[in-house]
Amino acid sequence: MRWKLFATLSETVGDNVLEVSVDAEEPTLRDAFDALLAAHPELESQVLDEEGALQDHLRLLCDGEDPFHSAEGWETDLGDVEELAMFPPVTGG
Amino acid sequence: MHVLSIVGHSDTGKTTLTERLTDRFSDRGRVGTVKHIDCEPTLDTEGKDTARHRAAGAVQTYGIGDDEWFATGDTSELDLHEALERLGERCDYALVEGYSDLALPTVVLGEYDVDRGEVLARPSHGEEADIEAIVDALEATEPYETLSSLVAKVKRSPDEVYSGAIATFTGRVRAKEGPDDERTEKLEFEKYDEVAEQKMAEIREELEKRDGVYEVRMHHKTGVVEAGEDIVFVVVLAGHRGEAFETVEDGINRLKEIVPLFKKEVTVDEEFWAHEQ
């Protein structure tokens, strides 16, 4: 699964496009997210809060769409998804 | 407008390549060129009326004939970016010959070092260059937009006859918040390309549905933007000033809210991402 990271997150990893293999047979967003952190544990302190949940200010997108808005959140089936992205609050302009 | 810089030492065929590309791009749109010259221009020669205007102290002089025109002036009156801004109003392509190292898509002829521009091709001589490959590579780059090029575009709208107002917003790099503030030297923008384009298209579509709003254009630069330079433009063509002002404000607010762009600030002493402040 292809992950794209931006700003501080890509600086932490040293790259902004990552290929992360996900073992699950019918992977969900949760599986892909866990696989990303397993492959890049250096992200953990930046991405997870004290309870191990995704920090509030971070956004996730599945092929440009917000899965918590237009799909099943963590349970979103990634069958047809090509690209996942994670980033901090946008700061254009 | 797409802008291409052509660089190389003398006798590497820069002008030959500029001619070949001008000819090729003319099939696709209007082409403007800028040449960096070391010698005095010969057009406005001593004793001509326009030269007398200049000698009397005019900083810029236009000679306009029935078929052609020319302009002359002090170099302090026109830099490359101002020339490109003017070309952007009417041209689809601009070829810039002989500047050494610009932050623009570039063709390098022969052995020559460039740091700032994205190099699209490195032929050994202008005669050898693969024109079609350069055309395709240039079309794939982000166009060079300015406030005037966007204003010119909305004015070409078929609904232009119903429009009594254009409102524009320009966001620029603020060097200081106040007299004691540490100076911001530059900002660096990272963009989630495909998604950013998609979100900007959504905003545009949403705003153009409003009554009395005919055209909306927005452009955001990426990469390094220095203090005092422009970052983002929003341009609205509308029936009346009310909807023009409201839409231009909503346009920039929506852009700042949903378009995946990330800003890093570089001050005299430090570097930080804007969201960490």
Automatic annotation (TrEMBL), chain A:
Cross-referenced Pfam families, in alphabetical order?
A: ThiS
Q: Where is the signal peptide?
A: none
Q: Which InterPro entries match?
A: Beta-grasp_dom_sf, Mopterin_synth/thiamin_S_b, SAMP1_3, ThiS/MoaD-like
Q: Which domain of life is it from?
A: Archaea
Q: Which residues cross the membrane?
A: none
**What protein does this entry describe?**
Molybdopterin synthase sulfur carrier subunit
Organism, as annotated: Halovenus carboxidivorans
Automatic annotation (TrEMBL), chain B:
Q: What Gene Ontology molecular-function terms does this entry list?
A: GTP binding; molybdopterin synthase activity
EC number(s): the record gives 2.8.1.12
- Domain of life (superkingdom): Archaea
The answer on whether this UniProt entry bears the keyword Transferase reads yes
Q: Which InterPro entries match?
A: MoaE_sf, MobB_dom, Mopterin_biosynth_MoaE, P-loop_NTPase
Occurrences of domain Molybdopterin-guanine dinucleotide biosynthesis protein B (MobB) (ranges) = 3-118
Membrane-spanning residues where?
Answer: none
SUPFAM superfamilies tied to this protein: Molybdopterin synthase subunit MoaE, P-loop containing nucleoside triphosphate hydrolases
Query: Carries keyword Transferase?
Result: yes
* Keyword terms, alphabetized: Transferase
Q: Name one GO biological process term.
A: Mo-molybdopterin cofactor biosynthetic process
Output the PANTHER family linked to this UniProt entry. MOLYBDOPTERIN SYNTHASE RELATED
The protein, known as:
Molybdopterin synthase
Organism, by scientific name, is Halovenus carboxidivorans
